[in-house]
Amino acid sequence: MMNQKESVTWLIQYLEKEMPEYEGYGVPEGEKEAFDLFRALCNVRMPGPVSEEFLKIQDAYLQEETRKKGVTDVEDLDPVSSDARLVLWQGDISTLKCDAIVNAANSQMLGCFRPLHGCIDNVENTYAGVQLRNYMDAQMEKKREQYGVDYEQPTAVPMISPAFNLPSKYIVHVVGPIVSPYLTQTHKEQLSECYRASLDLAANNGCENIAFCCISTGVFMFPQDKAAEIAVKTVKEWLDGHPDSCMKKVIFNVFKDADLRIYQRLLDTEDFRGFRKIVR
User: Fewer CB within a 10 Å sphere, N or C end of the chain?
Assistant: First the structure.
């Protein structure tokens, strides 16, 4: 059995052979540098067939990398004091073991193609493996056959996929509103629908819990405080309106300290016992 360095070396060499324009990079000596090159190559790789041997080695490698980051089980997280149905957690959503995590996707639904970009879309696709991009491309191909080759996924219309090598069962992919040039009522309504529709989809797939990232607050430029207000209000209203749903717990996942403070205020909790993990 290969160790992590042997595995990442094999994976890099496979990808460089597949994409000869990147062959000149070789394999870095350092563990982090080798991981970053592997990640960057996966980021730029277009959807397409891959060998079973690649998947076997990749899956073992990624699962070990996630294990080293540390996996958090949603069952070990305490709810906020103001509402037993809600959890506030600061950390890397790709390490959360739960039924579904949300991905703030783009309209192509294929993940982030920018090498080593720090967005949720890039991180989730990296640690899920190349299967995720292939799976989503197959789903989008069905849409293109139905609606035309220029089809793009509309805002607030989620899709669900397996999570592959992530600890969660599913990923709910949703395109949030892009705030430009300024925040409008339409943007607010679209963001609210992102949360409602994602909850509907997850519940329809038997999920008892779901973790939301801060949809649209990154490069889509939705103001953080307004986005959090909409998220909390919409989730509470949905849970109140679906008392018989299988959905029992909703996790608000934050990464930035600023978002943590906003959610602490909105959820009226002073007993937060979360922690932060750094995304590689």
Answer: N
Please indicate, yes or no, whether the overall pTM of this predicted structure exceeds 0.85.
yes
Give the CATH number, domain containing residue 173.
3.40.220.10
8 A C-beta contact, residue 243 and residue 59: no
In a domain, 81, yes or no: yes
Does residue 20 sit within a domain? no
Whether 120 maps to a domain, the answer reads yes
Domain range for 163: 71-266
Query: How many domains is the chain partitioned into structurally?
Result: 1
pLDDT by position in tens, the chain (length 280): 899 999 999 999 999 999 999 998 989 999 999 999 999 999 999 999 999 999 999 999 999 999 999 999 999 999 999 999 999 999 999 999 999 999 999 999 999 999 999 999 999 999 999 999 999 999 999 999 999 999 999 999 999 999 999 999 999 999 999 999 999 999 999 999 999 999 999 999 999 999 999 999 988 999 999 999 999 999 999 999 999 999 999 999 999 999 999 999 999 754 434 433 333 3
